[in-house]
Amino acid sequence: MHARAVAASTTALLGTVALLFPVSPARAVGGGWPLVIAHRGASAYAPENTLAAVDKAAELGIRWVENDVQRTRDGELVVLHDDNLRRTTDVEEVFPDRAPWKVKDFTAAEIARLDAGSWFGPAYAGARVPTLEQFVNRVERHHQKLLLEIKNPELYPGIERQTLKVLGNEGWLDRSHLAGRLIVQGFSADSVRTVHELKPAVKTGFLGTPPVSDLPGYAGFADQINPSYGSLSTAYVASVQAFTGPHGRPLEVFTWTVDDAATAQRVAGYGVDGIITNKPDVVREAVDG
Ligand code: G3P
Ligand code: CA
């Protein structure tokens, strides 16, 4: 059995023990594991994918932030989850005649006018949809790390190269960032493969739960397999971690989106490497004591 698989089995056992005794598996191995990643920033407490959500994660002491990157009509990369602006901005009020309000149909200047905070709460009125450049600079200011998702790449031809260009321009492709502060992930295997081919030194993740029989193919271009927690098991995590990724290290598993303590402890028991959560404080406490 691969050493990582042995570790996962041990972890699973520790996870079971953790349910019986008030000692978490993370504490048992020294703390800080599994990693906790603030999903769209600390998005339970501040509007998702805004600079305020990055700040909130930092305030909570969370080192990793996840985001979603898309492109405007005039070619600017912006940070937003949905392919349209309706749910998380006041676009329908500001541009009532522009249905269906797709991100790709608005210029960066138009999007910069939108309020991306009021929908979440009055305290965040006036928050903006950040550009990728603004977002990575805020993450940098807090000395945090970034799990960057290229969202809907089929809508934005060339977005992989453009994302890497922005990251490079902002200093995120230097040795220290590549060594442990940046992961680029996505639901599209083609897109993740493209990132890997364009810049092999970048750590990458595939979002999904491919059959184990397909994992050798993914291991050629992805360092992580990142499934929804509902599709996970100890056996699946161990199977993933038994493969060696493109950088010669065992594949990792970051799972999403876990917002309660019991589920966090359960998936930690499966042996995952990271937990992506809207409530990073709750998950940190659950897995680290
Ligand atoms: O990081 C994992 C997670 O963000 C994937 O789902 O829809 O929230 O982007 P979604
Ligand atoms: Ca995402």
From TrEMBL:
Residues 34-287 form the GP-PDE domain. It holds the Pfam family GDPD. PROSITE patterns: GP_PDE. GO terms for molecular function: phosphoric diester hydrolase activity. Coiled coil: none annotated. GO terms for biological process: lipid metabolic process. This is Glycerophosphodiester phosphodiesterase. It comes from the Bacteria.
